[in-house]
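> Could you send the Outer membrane protein TolC prediction when you get a chance?

Sure thing. Input:
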Amino acid sequence: MFQRSPRHTLIALLACICAGPQGAAAHASPPVSLTQLEDRARAFAPSARLAQADVTVAEQRSAALQAGSGAQLFGGAGVDNAREAVTDTLSRDYQRTQMHLGVRWPLLGTRAAQQRTVDDAQHAVEQSRLRRLQMENEAVLAVRRAYVRHLRSVERIRLADAFLRVRAEAQEQLASRHAAGVLLEADRLDLGGLFNIVQATHDSQSAARDLARAEIERLTGQPAAAVQTQEPAWPQTCLAPGAAALDRSPAVTLAQQEVDAALQRQQHARLEGVQASISLAQSFSRDIGGPTGHSTRVGVDFSLPLQWRSQRDAALAQAQGEIDRAQALLALRRSELEAAAQQALAAYRLRDTEMAGHQHRQQAAAEALRIAQLRLNAFDGDGYSKLLTTRYALYQAAVQVVDGAERRDLAALDVLALGDGCTLAWHDAPAAPDPWAATVAALAGGTAPTSAKAAPGETGLGWYVWQGQALLDQPAQLDELPPRSRRLLLSFTAAQLQALARPDGRARWMALRAQAQARQLTLELLLGEPTWVLPHERARLLALVESLRDLPADALHLDLERSQLPAAQQRDWSRHLIDTLQAVRAAAPWPLALTTHYRELQQPGFAARVHAAGVGEVVAMLYVNNPERTATLARPLLSAAPAGLRIAVAQSIESALPAQESSFALGKAQSLQRWDALAHQLAGLPGFGGVVVQSWEDYREARP
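Output:
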């Protein structure tokens, strides 16, 4: 046998010591996913285990009662010591042994009573199984709620840690500016107090995270050393109207079983009070010292109350009363669940719609922080104070996004709990890039991101999709998008928009939206009709917006161009446009964007008026097939734009336009290179919103 030398043993020991933490990390168990937590909760949650014990007891009771029903074996044996009178003066003394054995079958009411007992026991088994399923679903729902609270607490802690990372540097800077006489003491205390507020939030969220983890451990019956912090992707088809399968919910099924049991009891009640049986018996007897005898007996026994008809009628009336009560309970459960489904769906749609506003505010805060970073050196007196306040504003906006996401997820769970196949059908979302990386970097003192969904310095690529229905029908087209794609502007016909407002259309939109979110894509509604700016046509646009207001979208994009109106109506276009934008902004629940020709932005004050009307982004149609020339035309537009208004540049790959305006003849690869070059030239300018391509359909038809 091979023996290690002392030198080899010492080297191995030193290697283990040096690699201790790394080796331990290599063998550390991976974080527990939500799917694993749900599986554990179904088996180990205290309520689920109690429900399983109830099922076992009910099954054993039913088996015992079923085994004891039906025919019964009876028998007996005895010894008689008898004296019988033969005459008045003579008696006969003898001893006799006897034994009998037989089978008795219950009949009529006796059999009905036995069957009723067996049926009730079987109903109890089915009810206990449904209650177990109900307890398992409730345990899964509780685990999901705890998982969401844990995830969002971790995100808040991460944001707070990033903000507090510059605490020491900030306090030093504030002290030095106060000593130099450029910062008042009140301002120094006020700005320093921001870190105390964030620290308190950090501590409270740490406690909330620990409580959520403790709840997970209680429900799963195992310590949760590490819980995944992965963004949940709930089944969108289960979050649409009509997805709730109320008739298959445990509560309704339990009530329906009560109705079925009452109907069965009514059948048995028709023979209430009538007891009867038939028996077959064989007996043997032997006189001690005498011959053996035997007999075979067939007997019928019955008993009938003298007031049997009255007793039967009362039993039938009682059974009918139980049926009526069970049916009323079933109707009550259905109505309660219908009301709960409507309320849960309305709450979810409200929370989901709110997310666009929270994300828009975060984008605005990120842009304000980026501008404050650029102006820091130019305004040394109060530039640093402005930088701290804008960083804190970004922190607050990011926390609002987290809060909104938590409220939306909890509302989604209430809807999923009512859906057939949704409560238990969970699949972990695919791994996606960290959505908070850019914000965390900005809070920690890095460069502010230009978008909540884009990495620092990356604006992404957008696409006009004029055939939005084709994308709904074939969502696999998303796989064809270039990697830097970040937004889709989807247009539909009037009939298709009406279909989107219906439950089935909304479900298809939600399914596409879920796939888009997994790819970090935003879906924006694109509405384009030039006459909508006219006062007498504006009501049509507002009615359309009102019919779609419950549709979750990341923005509402209006394509309104002066040149598409008759010449006589173009003169008052600007004034009508502002009135239309203000009316839509008041009616629409989404962020508002506008596509128009870039020459409109060259008019003094136009961008400011549009921004004041509620528009957060303008896409300038700048169809010049030359990145350098396009950048030259776009820079003045970006420089003159008011703070908070994003300016994106629309480029064309339309086959119908000439080569000077469209890159269709160049093909996909060269077009992407040109758009990337344009985005690179404009990326450093404040408010640049990226490049949006006209259109996705033409891009797909272009050569590689």
